[in-house]
Amino acid sequence: MPKGVVYLVGAGPGNPDLLTVRAKQLIESAEVLVYDYLVHPAFTHLLPEGCEQICVGKRKGFHSKKQEEIQEILLAKAGEGKRVVRLKGGDPFIFGRGGEEALALAEAGIPFEVVPGITSAMGASAFSGIPLTNRNTNATLVFVTGHEDPEKMDTTVDWGSLPKQNATICIYMGVANLSRIAGRLSEGGFSMDTPVACVEWATMGHQRICRGQLGTISETAKAFGLKAPAIIIVGETAGMSEDLSWFEKKPLQGRRLVVTRSQGQASELSSMLEKLGAEVIGLPLITISGNVNPKTAEDVFSEIASYDWLVFSSPNGVRYFFEAFFKKFEDIRSLGFLRIAAVGKSTAKEIKKYFVSTDLVPEQANAESLAEALVATDSLDSAKVLVVAGNLGRDVLLDKLEEARAIVDRFEVYKTEQTDLSENPAAKMFREQGADGILFTSSSGVRSFIDQAKHLQLSGDALRPKTISIGPITSATMKQIGMPVDLEAKEASLESLVESVVKRFGK
Length: 507
What we know:
The protein is α/β, with parallel strands linked by helices. It has helices at residues 21-28, 67-79, 98-107, 120-128, 178-188, 217-224, 263-275, 294-302, 315-328, 345-352, 367-375, 396-403, 425-433, 443-451, 472-480, 494-505, and strands at 5-10, 32-35, 52-55, 83-88, 112-115, 140-145, 167-172, 195-200, 208-213, 230-234, 256-259, 279-282, 286-290, 309-312, 339-342, 384-390, 407-418, 437-440, 466-469, 487-488. A hairpin with a 7-residue loop joins strand 8 (195-200) and strand 9. It is elongated, with a radius of gyration of 27 Å.
C-alpha cells in the first residue's frame, strides 16, 4: 500500500476568515482531519463528504490525547495511505508542537508538508490595535511561552533578561501563571507601571481586552475574569491609544450568535453578522438537497411554455428549479411568456441571479400574502400555475390558488432533512459556550432544534441565548411547540433579521 501524506496546517488564531488559501485547499481535499479543540468548527464545513474527523482535545481542564497518541494517529492514518490534515491553532511551528510531529513523521519516512498560519500574537495585535513594534519605543519583539513542559527540571526562559532587551514581550499560554510571570519581569528590570494588555479569544467575536500595568495586572486580570486562551502583551506599545482598537468598535463585537440555517444557506447570513463583528456558530440543523424526479421534470419542462404563472416559494426552490431547467434547456427564453411570482425579496433576489425579472412580490414574505397578491391580479381563473416547492412546503398556497379556480401543478425540486448533530463540532461548541442569541429562519429549523435537543443541552455556565425569529410563520411554529420568541424581524428577510439583531444586541 502506498504511504499517505500528512499536512501540518496552521488554522490561524481562531477567526475562520484568517485561514490561508493553501490551508483551505488542503482541508477541502482531506481524507482524515486531526484537529485541536481551539480550531473553529466552521473549518469542518469545508471537508469533503466521508472525511474522517478526529478531535484530539488540547484544552486545559478537558480530556486531551497525549502528544505521543496524536503522533501515533498521524503515523497510523498515513500508513493506511490516507491524505491527512493535522489542523493546529495558530502556526504549527510556534508553540504548537508541530516540530515534534514533523520529527516523528520524518523518522517514519512519511511525506509531510508544513503550512504556516497566522500566529496568535499577530492576530491579537491586529485585532486589538496594539502594534508589536514601534520605531519610537522598541525594535525588538519576543515570543515566549508562559507554560513550559511540566516535566522539565529548570526553565529555559530567562525572564530576567527580557526587560533588558527593550522589547515587546508576547506571552503565550500564560494566564494561569500571570502573577509569577509579572513578578519575574519586574525583578528583571521592567517598571511596575509598564503597560500590559491581555487579549482573550483574540480575533473572535467575543474577544476581550484586559488592560493594566505590570505591578497590578494579576489583580486586574482576576477582577476582569480573564480566562484562557489569551495572549499577554507587555511593553510600551501595549499602552498605545485605544483608538486603534478598530475591531471592538463594530456593533456586534462581543456577541456570539448561532445561525441555524442549512449549511449552504448559512454563509450569507453568517457573513452579514460577522462583518458587524459577531462571532457566528453555524449550526446546520437541516440539510437541503436537490430532489427532482426525472419523469416529473420531463413532464413539467415539456409544457413549461404553456403556464401562465411560475411561482417560487423559497430561494431554494429557485436554485434547484434552474439547476434542473438548464439540464433540459440552454436558453432562458425557453421559459416562454409566463409571469413569475416570488414569495419575498430574498426569493426575488435569487431569481435575479438568473437574469430573470420577477413580476410579483407581496409586501409580506409568506404563502398567505403571496396567494392574496396572485388572486388580486384577477388573472387566475382557468390559468395554469406552476408552484415550485420542497418536500415540506405548506399546502396553503396551492389551496388558495385552486379556490381562485387556477389549474395548479406542484413541482417538488428539493428536500429538507434533519442534520445529525450527535458528533457535530459546532453543536459541541454551543453546548459548552452557549450564545447571546440563536436565529431561526424556518419552521423546519425550529422543529429540528427541538427534535435534537438532547445534543444541544447547555452546560451549567454556558450563555443562555435569546431566541430570534425571521418572521411570523417561524414565530408561530416556535410558539406552537412552547418555545419563546424573544425577537422577531420586522420583515421576513435576512436584511431585516440582521437589522433587528443589531438594534437588540448592538453597541
